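Onboarding guide, step 5: your first structure request.
Type a short instruction followed by the sequence, for example:

Predict the 3D structure of this protein.
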Amino acid sequence: MSTAPAAGPPDADLSDVDRSDPAGRAWVDRAVAAVEADALRSADTHLLVYPLPPEWGVDLYLKDESTHPTGSLKHRLARSLFLHALCSGWITEGSTVVEASSGSTAVSEAYVARMLGLPFVAVMPASTSREKIALIERHGGRCHLVEHAADVYDEARRLAAETGGHYLDQFTHAERATDWRGNNTIAESVFEQLALERHPVPEWVVVGAGTGGTSATFGRYLRFRRHPTRLAVVDPEGSAFFPGWVAGDAATTGTPSRIEGIGRPRMEPSFLPTVVDRMIRVPDAASLAAVHHLERATGRRAGGSTGTNLWGAFRLVAEMVAAGRTGSVVTLLCDGGERYGRTLHSPDWVAGQGLDCAPYAAVLEEFAATGRWPG
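The system replies with structure tokens like these:
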């Protein structure tokens, strides 16, 4: 007759392991509440009407993201990334937060990190504008510069591991950190603000791609709400998004973008090509010409990515005018031009880059006067 083995002492029983940390959970609760409170303090951004001749029958809108507390579209992303990491248990009290960023995302993340009392390190190319570096440091962040743009990912991972911290990794997590179904996303906000306009459902939404998070949010939202609106993504010179989308593969170029905030040397994991209806490659000189055109037309000085957006939006408006279609187009004013005083708003910098904006300025003047776009 067999007998069951005698039970071991209670401290040998490993079938029940409790790793709860009430103090740590309480800190996370306070951190999440602080990020949510920041969102509640921030009023929605304006949807500006761009001045087009009314007889064209096409309305163009700019979602002005420069009015966020940290001055750019990336303020939304920073909040989402921190909430995602906090609620996933990746950031805890005292964590060093590390990011690979070309500038604006890091500015916003430094703001959130300081709000939570966390150290923040931004890994970025040495070519990043001095103005953006100063903004990151003003918000308490530390800038770690690398010579080659393609090195930011591995260096950010190394620093996070070295400090026992967390690498936010915007280029992987941007598309999943935002609740694209609504919850006051930029897409939901745009459609609510258009509700009383004469063309409340736009024919096109035009955005650039840096992480791919904004295009993923808009593309998914359009399908979720069953809107017929199409999504166009504009891409600057040398970026991997356009060739990757065309070829249907994960392209790499290894080329840093002169248009800060958009364009990447590789096709980032957060970019969802399947939700993009059309891609438009925009020459860097055309982006700058459009920025200067915006300032002449509205008095608003913006960053280069806004110029890339506008070039694509103007082209689509011209196509609608040529086809006799009425409707609306929406794009983004991503950030203000004060961050680029020594670069794209400096004639010496533009000349040093070998950029000739004059031919593109002529295209925009012709478009403004007639609604036509060259062949």
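Each response can be followed by summary notes, for example: The longest helix spans residues 22-41.
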